[in-house]
Amino acid sequence: MSPFQLHLATSAPSLTAVFRYLRFASLALCSMVVAGLSAFTAAPASASSVAPAGASSTTYLCWGYAGCARAGMGNAGYSAVGKTMYWRMYGGHNCTNYAAYRMVQSGLPNTRPWTGSGNATNWGSAMSRITDGQPSVGAIAWWRAYVSPAGSAGHVAYVERVVDANTIIVSQDSWGGEFSWKRITRGGGQWPSGFVHFGQLAQRNTAKPAVTGTPQAGQTLTATPGTWAVAGATYRYQWRAAGTDIAGATGSTLRLGAAQVGKAVSVAVTAVTTGYPSTTAVSAATATVRSSAVTNTTVPTISGTAAVGSTLAASAGSWSPAGTTTTFQWRSGGKPLTGQTRPTLTLTPELVGKPVRVAVTGHRTGYDDTTTWSPLSAATAPGTITLTTPPVVAGTPQPGQRLSLTNGTATPADTALVTHWLRDGVAVAGATRSTYPLTTADVGHQIAAQVTGQRAGYAPLAVTTAPTPRVRATPTVKVTAVPGHRTLKLTVAVTAPGADAVTGVIGVRLRGVLLGTMPVRAGKGTLTLSRLPVGSQSFRVHFRTSSTVLAATVWRRVTIR
């Protein structure tokens, strides 16, 4: 007794159920599938583990997922994923979705391999080039519309076994029905219209893929797919190094890098052909990939002022391949400058008059180093000594006073600064300190200070302060007043230390009114005033500032008659 006979014996189906099933099965095993998605949404009939009443044990071997499983006849996992759509067919109990699922399980992509309707009746017609009358395990048994047991949409099933040339066993599902296994004989009136051999007609590589190009880091290899027995294939590439897949290397070209140095490279080409399982062929391996020198694509440059004390900065330029690192070596006169291996160089006194350049070396693992040079800089000019603040002279420009100089600090800091005091621009002998005592020798002259600095490799520094006002002495003014009838005769004598013959002008005022002026020559001057008011009067005698003498004022009270 077969597993189905044992199951049927314990099920005891009714005669009414037998006729109901036979009527349904003969008309609508697979009456609707998805073709651009039909709007028909009727729910499949509920599942049953009992074969339809009255079914012959030589036809149905099992019925329902559970019943077939107990009989040792599986569904290849469809019961767990059947609601998923395969090849855009309706999910659930549906002959086309089940058949498409089995083809995807066999290795075909989940993409319908033809355009147009997905109804079962269209399968063999759409795929006529792989459809014939020869049954084989793994093929799809196909019934045209209205070919028993199919209805208007046709029917498809999966060939599980080929018992002999006239007997096959299939697994199948039905729209609105149930999953089952069935034995079909050629003379039983339900023999398929044909068998669609998805994935069974092997695509075959007739000439291996090939790799061209130079196996050297930095170079590009190109794959050709070879030749294949079935035309119309599309190709997928996977590059390998020493037999191991290179992550992300799935194009028809491969740029070799450091990771491939020392390894032979090959390419695996997979031919994808509609209706055929994907087939892979591997090219012969290249010679071992050798190292290559990195390449400078943009020359290094130098920026900055070529002068002692200034800093030059080097740009490494551009390098290939990406990821190249660089090191620097500054040079002058064709020789490396000891210890100068940074991207910057501060120019020192010994480089005065000499140009410099930088040598940049590119490094990358698996590649040979390459060194290139920047253009020469201008000849190094002497440096410039600067002061943090301009020098300033402070003090009162009078004999007996002391002037002082504030000159800040120098850059470079070790520059020695020297002070020279100047009288009318001429250095005063011995006057080199930060202060300067004014004497009568300075009367009538302007005093300034000059700060000088010397340092090897630098232009000499010489900064002169603004000159002081003229040094003026404090005068002594003696006034002799001789009154007359509404008149006053004034005689003035002006003397000052350091001024041998004082010259200038004296003005006389009474009650703020200027009465007259008198010139002073050789220290003397005379002025007679008339028409003065009678009485005791206070006269202001003022000596105006001259080039050597400061101003002075004397008051005289005189009685005018």
Radius of gyration, in angstroms, nearest whole number = 58 Å
Structural class per helix/strand content? mainly beta
Largest sheet: 7 strands, antiparallel
Distance between the ends? 175 Å
Spell out the CATH superfamily of the largest domain: endopeptidase domain like (from Nostoc punctiforme)
* Model regions low in confidence, pLDDT < 50 over at least 5 residues: 1-28, 31-57
Number of helices: 6
The spatial strand order of the largest sheet comes to 1-6-5-4-3-7-2
Task: Tell me the number of structural domains.
Answer: 5
The general outline is elongated
Q: What is the CATH topology classification name of the largest domain?
A: endopeptidase fold (from Nostoc punctiforme)
Specify the oligomeric state.
single chain
The CATH class of the largest domain, by name, is Alpha Beta
Assess the beta-strand content as a share of residues.
35-45%
Q: Summarize the amount of helix as a percent range.
A: under 10%
Integer average pLDDT: 88
What is the level-2 CATH architecture name of the largest domain? Answer: Alpha-Beta Complex
Strand tally is: 45
Can you tell me about this structure?
The protein has 561 residues and is mainly β. Helices cover 8% and strands 39% of the residues. It is elongated and about 175 Å long.
How is the secondary structure organized here?
Blueprint: H1 3-9, H2 15-27, E1 60-63, H3 65-70, H4 78-81, H5 95-105, H6 123-126, E2 131-132, E3 140-143, E4 155-164, E5 167-172, E6 180-185, E7 194-196, E8 205-207, E9 210-212, E10 220-224, E11 227-228, E12 234-241, E13 244-245, E14 253-255, E15 265-272, E16 279-282, E17 292-293, E18 295-298, E19 301-303, E20 311-315, E21 318-320, E22 325-332, E23 335-336, E24 344-346, E25 356-363, E26 367-368, E27 370-373, E28 383-384, E29 386-387, E30 392-394, E31 402-406, E32 410-411, E33 416-423, E34 426-427, E35 435-437, E36 447-454, E37 458-459, E38 461-464, E39 476-484, E40 487-495, E41 504-510, E42 513-520, E43 524-530, E44 535-543, E45 552-560
Parallel strand pairs: 17-26, 28-37
Antiparallel strand pairs: 1-6, 2-7, 3-4, 3-7, 4-5, 5-6, 8-11, 9-10, 10-14, 12-13, 12-15, 15-16, 18-21, 19-20, 20-24, 22-23, 22-25, 25-27, 29-32, 30-31, 31-35, 33-34, 33-36, 36-38, 39-40, 40-43, 41-42, 41-44, 44-45
